[in-house]
Amino acid sequence: MAVPDRDLGLDTLLDLHGQTLFIDEIGHWVKFVVLRTEVTAERPHGLNYSLTLHAPDGTRLVGFDNAHPVRGRRGPGTRRRAESDHRHRMRTIRPYAYKDASTLLEDFWKEVDADLKARGAIL
Known about the structure:
By secondary structure, this protein is of the alpha+beta class. It has two helices and six strands. The chain has helices at 10-15, 101-118; strands spanning 20-22, 29-36, 47-54, 60-65, 86-89, 92-95. Strand 1 (20-22) and strand 2 form a beta hairpin.
C-alpha cells in the first residue's frame, strides 16, 4: 500500500544529482543539481534544484530551478512570490508551480524536447 503523501518521483530526481548528460550528436547537454534542504517558505518541498538544458557552447537554453524568488507577473505593484520555483527559457523567467518531483521531471523534459524541436536539433 502506498503512503498517501509520498512523492514517488523524489528518489529518481535525487538520483540525478550531479549528472550531466549529452543528449544529441550536436552537443546539447543537460545538467541536474538536486539536494535536500530545510523546508522554508521559498522551498516548501525541501529541495534545492536546478535542471538545465545547454547549447553546445554552454549557453543555458532551458532551466527549472528555485535559486531565487521571481515576480508572479510584470508591472507596478507586483510582489515576489514566496516560493522560488521558476523556469527559464532563454532570457524569459516565469514562475513554476511545483507539484512533485515526477511532474518537475516531466515538465523539464517537455521543455527540452520543445526547445530542441524548435532549433531543428530533433524531429
